[in-house]
Structure formats: structure tokens, C-alpha cells
Amino acid sequence: MDMQFDILWSGALTGLIGFVGWMLRNYVEEQKRLQILLNRTREEMAKEYITKSEVHSDINRVMDRLDALDAKIDRLIENYAR
Questions:
Q1: What is the residue range of 76's domain?
Q2: In this structure, are 67 and 42 located in the same domain?
Q3: pTM over the 0.85 mark
Q4: 79 φ, ψ to 5°?
Q5: Are residues 54 and 66 in the same domain?
Q6: Given a cut of 80, is residue 48 above it in pLDDT?
């Protein structure tokens, strides 16, 4: 009876240790996967940002176009008023 209990106990402990090892391995693999995804996200985000000087140059281009349109509208109004 004592030997059967020892065999059952050893089997149960082996199963438990195997399960814990399997869970730990999955946890470590998931951490590695998340770290890779985080690094890729950081790289991709850096590509999408622009500098202040780029923003200012784009805004200045838009403002120049709006000024040109404003001047054309003013000329149209002056010609139409005559």
C-alpha cells in the first residue's frame, strides 16, 4: 500500500511540476513576443512623428496659398464692382 501511494504521489508531483514548467515556458515566450511587438511599435511610431520645423514649413505653405487665394478673390471683387 505504501509503495502504491509513493508511486501516485510521485506521479502527481511530476504532473504538477510539468504543468508549472509548461505554464512558465508559455509565460516567458509571451513576454518575449510582447517585447518584440513593443520594440516594433516604438520603431514605427518614430517614423510617423514630424519635427517642429516640418510643421511650420507645411503651415507656411498653406498660409501662402490662402494669401494667394485671398488676393485673387479681392481682385475678382474689385473687377466685379467696376
A1: 50-82
A2: no
A3: no
A4: -70, -35
A5: yes
A6: no
